[in-house]
């Protein structure tokens, strides 16, 4: 979950969480949105990009449900929306997020749609609960006839005394994730072996010794990864970058994605690509809402109304075509 920087947005989150509107009914694939081209646009305004802090989109393989991370007033949780009779439901907190005592974040729906992996700060067995992001482990829920199972942690080959977060899967079930250390983060890879994961191996990336990187999405065919990387430019901010595979578990150097993705002043937090490889989803906090104008005389009600909309300076989810953005290795 490395570097969830809220940029002193506690007040804004509180305001935007007040008096939330019910989103208008939407239907069709991708909420009936026009498919994006080469320029990023907001994804699912009013549903996913709603005015509260959102990121980490994961879409079920049938396209009928969408899971994403959200944050508000010090709570961090997973939300979802689904198509019922062709109409998208109002997003709600996922049923396996049962308490505000810990954080659940970074959902990943598996390629078969039967499991969700996610980051949780739930205490490991035998451990006392701790506040904040003290524990960071990868947990899972499995689909049942009634919905989803009770959350369970992945085995100890994955979850250690270090932090593990941001799961990503290949089509054959190989798990990529970030492991945090005292002064760095590294990407690991673990192949699925029957009912368990193999001992993870650190992913090798050319020229990455001086870089800080985390939250790596891996393509289903394992041909490229997209990660948040610091040290690739003079700002030293984390930026979205792609690395193409040389072979399994070994990658060429990171290459920055263009400025239309890495907008000036923004910090990369999370990216993913649709299962068909056509669309990149990424989080960005560009304050571009033309209605967001602080002027003398604006009432509190008007202020609340403005801050309940996307592009208010909090993180929103954008999507863009991958054509010309990610090359076919």
What is the strand and helix layout of this fold?
Blueprint: H1 10-17, E1 41-42, E2 53-59, E3 65-72, E4 75-84, E5 87-88, E6 92-93, E7 104-109, E8 115-120, E9 137-144, E10 147-148, E11 152-153, E12 163-169, E13 175-180, E14 185-190, E15 192-193, E16 196-197, E17 201-202, E18 204-205, E19 212-218, E20 224-230, E21 239-247, E22 250-251, E23 255-256, E24 271-273, E25 279-284, H2 300-307, E26 316-321
Question: Can you give a write-up of this model?
Answer:
With 329 residues, the protein is mostly beta strands. It has one domain (10-321): Neuraminidase. Helix content is 5%, strand content 38%. It contains 2 helices and 26 strands. It has helices at residues 10-17, 300-307, and strands at residues 41-42, 53-59, 65-72, 75-84, 87-88, 92-93, 104-109, 115-120, 137-144, 147-148, 152-153, 163-169, 175-180, 185-190, 192-193, 196-197, 201-202, 204-205, 212-218, 224-230, 239-247, 250-251, 255-256, 271-273, 279-284, 316-321. Strands 18, 19, 20, 21, 22 and 23 form a 6-stranded mixed β-sheet that branches. The radius of gyration is 19 Å and the shape is globular. Mean pLDDT is 90; it is low at 5-20.
